[in-house]
């Protein structure tokens, strides 16, 4: 039986959806309220035995397309389709179903369709329309719940209810069920990670198996190795964005169709782009980037949530990082033009004032968080703006940010509101933002008292490996102790580590951190004294980045660029000086693509990278001229026998792909320092045992630096707990040694008397030290406690 004979248009059900849409437009309090209600019915949804489809397609009105030229296109594979194969040609049956619409909204309900599940691949679909010349055009589903071939290919109809019914953490959610929606508050600390570099396999399924293995070892009281400890003693795991991202600018596409006598054949490629997660196209934000899925099934994200929520001893929370403040320019090819409000430095602004766009964005967020996230981190909240025509200026859309935090989620029958974190550095990108930003613009306007923002030491442009950094930031740390209870703290995250690799080595680098640049950078972002400051002294919620904690590399990773790929690599070239030495480059599995292009040694590549950034600047990025000048270098550069535009682009692609592989934390496991890893693990436990440290400083608490400076920066802090416990910490941040001092007898206020016990010492202090005089040097710290 053909596909056309198996599926049927449900006229009555479709008419009911159109009537409901019409009624909402007529009777809803506002247009936005109507759009919010309508958005719940948009996208491809499976209900019982019906496939229900809704699209917001104002472009059909723009082009004056009549009803008779609009159809729901259904595609069903004839041949076996294997989502774990990298390349395959698959024949599809195609059928067109009629639709009904009200204004810009189009609906179709049909029977006989196949919905995707964990073990079943469902039908693919898109909205299509025919122009007056007989040409066909596709409108893809931006609210799709399964996109096995990315956001620029037809979506798969998916049984989301079945996926939710099979959750392994149902009891976790049931325990939170109340008459009113449960409200998640802050955690004690966060591990931030990038799924593709967090495990050797680089998928969500790999990460789930890692946590399942750790859980089993904890249940059976088995020993944990240093690599295991990297993931332990965190209350929450925050994933860098897992939404579909950009695709290769010039192909190949992951879905390529051809018509022949045998019908429709689709050349399918398993998505394999490398991306750090923030280059989103908005379309597809409700589901999971197929690059991250081992099986191609979105169930993998539910499985990860379940593994974290059922972790023995104490459930770990899952935090999603969502990007709704901009779209890459490729989004113009995935969404209709009504979604956008003009270009910005990242690509495109979104039109938040359009009621339909506003409603769809919020609905995308709701569906994504329903995978089972306990918290949400909002990227670039300062970028949510709209044009105020009366004032002739861009205005921050704080009302939209509030709407994000107000969404009620539902998982396993439990309604809840997640904990919210906003990254907001306004007035960034104004030139004085580092001085004028309060990092409290959102927390001061939101209705909830548990909303957090990224704090000043967590924002991008922090370089803790340059001399005077810590003293120069003392004014910010004074702010942190006074008002930092609702800040995410710590200096290691995906942004700070990336920015650190872009700093010129000619600046005033703190050479006391290490002998080589790699050692300096690694220690700067995994410094035991900075961790002590963050976990034992400062308020807020500490966050660590897995790549920094593992002392693995990190950088700007994106291999989709064609037009500007060479320019991006020229800007990233300086990271070679910070993150790659001769030995690391020589390891056979490192930088294999660049070696195949002729850069056999690090020196070969370094020489090329000395020329490339300079030529990009002086030629104003003229690739033809750059290739010509590189060919004329004497003595000749290593690498390809001949430089041309295609070769330059091949080198740029090789660098991005090689760096992506190089940044995988699994490569760093054999070089982990057990003492450093164990110290960090113990420090996290120390914080978890004292959740009151999150609060702002109270009466009797103080934070200061040792005077006189004498060529060093030494911080000290005293905290008082509600149970009478005191925590005193002294931290040598940078500079010359202190000479022989006894921290407890140095005259710091409030620590007089007896009863102090040494709780923690950084691993660069001998295990035989239990108290008394000591010479503190760069990166040394001590933490004492006593009960009063």
TrEMBL record:
<protein>
    <submittedName>
        <fullName>Hypothetical glycoside hydrolase 5</fullName>
    </submittedName>
</protein>
<dbReference type="Pfam" id="PF14872">
    <property type="entry name" value="GHL5"/>
</dbReference>
<dbReference type="GO" id="GO:0016787">
    <property type="term" value="F:hydrolase activity"/>
</dbReference>
<dbReference type="InterPro" id="IPR029457">
    <property type="entry name" value="GHL5"/>
</dbReference>
<keyword id="KW-0378">Hydrolase</keyword>
<dbReference type="InterPro" id="IPR017853">
    <property type="entry name" value="GH"/>
</dbReference>
């Amino acid at each position: 039986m053909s596909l056309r004979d198996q599926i049927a248009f449900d006229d009555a059900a479709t008419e009911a959806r159109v009537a409901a849409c019409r009624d909402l437009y007529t009777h809803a309090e506002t247009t936005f309220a109507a759009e919010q209600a309508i958005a719940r019915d948009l996208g491809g949804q499976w209900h019982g035995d019906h496939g229900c489809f809704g699209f917001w397609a104002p472009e059909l009105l723009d082009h004056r397309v009549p009803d008779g030229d609009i159809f729901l296109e259904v595609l069903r594979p004839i041949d076996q389709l294997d989502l774990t194969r990298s390349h395959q040609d698959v024949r599809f049956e195609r059928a067109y179903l009629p639709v009904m619409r009200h204004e810009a909204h189009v609906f179709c309900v049909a029977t006989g369709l196949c919905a995707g599940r964990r073990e079943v691949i469902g039908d693919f679909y898109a909205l299509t329309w025919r122009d007056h010349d007989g040409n066909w055009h596709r409108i893809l589903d931006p609210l799709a719940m399964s996109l096995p071939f990315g956001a620029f290919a037809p979506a798969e109809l998916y049984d989301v209810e079945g996926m939710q019914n099979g959750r392994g953490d149902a009891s976790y959610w049931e325990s939170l069920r109340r008459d009113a929606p449960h409200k998640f508050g802050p955690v004690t600390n966060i591990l931030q990670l990038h799924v593709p570099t967090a495990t050797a396999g680089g998928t969500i399924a790999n990460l789930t198996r890692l946590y399942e293995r750790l859980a089993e070892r904890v249940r059976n009281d088995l020993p944990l190795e240093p690599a295991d400890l990297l993931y332990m003693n965190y209350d929450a795991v925050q994933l860098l964005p897992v939404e579909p991202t950009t695709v290769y600018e010039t192909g190949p596409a992951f879905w390529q169709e051809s018509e022949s006598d045998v019908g429709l054949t689709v050349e399918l490629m398993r998505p394999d782009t490398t991306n750090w997660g923030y280059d989103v196209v908005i379309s597809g934000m409700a589901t999971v980037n197929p690059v991250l899925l081992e099986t191609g099934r979105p169930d993998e994200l539910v499985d990860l949530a379940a593994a974290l929520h059922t972790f023995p001893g104490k459930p770990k929370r899952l935090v999603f990082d969502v990007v709704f403040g901009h779209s890459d320019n490729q989004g113009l090819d995935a969404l209709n033009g009504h979604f956008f409000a003009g270009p910005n430095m990242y690509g495109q602004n979104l039109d938040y004032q359009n009621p339909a766009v506003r409603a769809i964005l919020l609905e995308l967020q709701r569906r994504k968080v329903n995978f089972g996230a306990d918290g949400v981190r909002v990227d670039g909240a300062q970028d949510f703006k709209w044009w105020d025509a009366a004032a002739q200026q861009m205005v921050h859309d704080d009302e939209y940010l509030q709407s994000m935090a107000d969404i009620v989620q539902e998982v396993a029958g439990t309604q809840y509101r997640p904990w919210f974190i906003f990254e907001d550095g306004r007035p960034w990108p104004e030139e004085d933002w580092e001085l004028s930003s309060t990092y409290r613009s959102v927390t001061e306007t939101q209705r909830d008292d548990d909303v957090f923002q990224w704090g000043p030491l967590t924002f991008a442009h922090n370089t803790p490996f340059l001399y005077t950094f810590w003293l120069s930031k003392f004014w910010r740390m004074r702010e942190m102790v006074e008002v930092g209870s609702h800040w995410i703290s710590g200096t290691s995250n995906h942004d700070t580590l990336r920015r650190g690799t872009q700093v010129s080595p000619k600046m005033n680098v703190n050479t006391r951190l290490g002998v080589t640049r790699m050692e300096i950078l690694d220690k700067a972002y995994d410094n035991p004294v900075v961790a002590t400051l963050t976990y034992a002294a400062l308020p807020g919620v500490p966050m660590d980045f897995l790549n920094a904690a593992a002392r693995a590399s990190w950088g700007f990773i994106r291999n989709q660029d064609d037009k500007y790929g060479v320019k991006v690599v020229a800007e990233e070239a300086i990271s070679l000086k910070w993150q790659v030495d001769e030995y690391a480059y020589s390891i056979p599995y490192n930088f294999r693509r660049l070696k195949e292009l002729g850069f056999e040694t690090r020196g070969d590549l370094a020489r090329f990278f000395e020329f490339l950034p300079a030529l990009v600047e002086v030629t104003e990025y003229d690739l033809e001229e750059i290739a010509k000048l590189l060919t004329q270098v004497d003595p000749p550069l290593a690498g390809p026998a001949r430089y041309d535009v295609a070769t330059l682009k091949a080198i740029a692609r090789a660098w991005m792909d090689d760096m992506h592989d190089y940044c995988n934390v699994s490569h760093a496991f054999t070089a982990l320092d057990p003492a450093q890893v164990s110290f960090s693990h113990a420090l996290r436990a120390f914080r978890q045992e004292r959740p009151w440290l999150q609060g702002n400083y109270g009466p009797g608490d103080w934070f200061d630096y040792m005077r006189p400076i004498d060529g060093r920066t030494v911080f000290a802090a005293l905290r008082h707990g509600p149970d009478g416990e005191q925590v005193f910490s002294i931290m040598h941040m940078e500079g010359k040694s202190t000479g022989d001092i006894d921290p407890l007898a140095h005259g710091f206020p409030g620590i007089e008397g007896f009863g102090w016990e040494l709780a923690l010492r950084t691993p660069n202090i001998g295990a035989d030290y239990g108290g008394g005089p000591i010479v503190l040097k760069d990166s040394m710290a001590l933490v004492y406690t006593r009960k009063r």
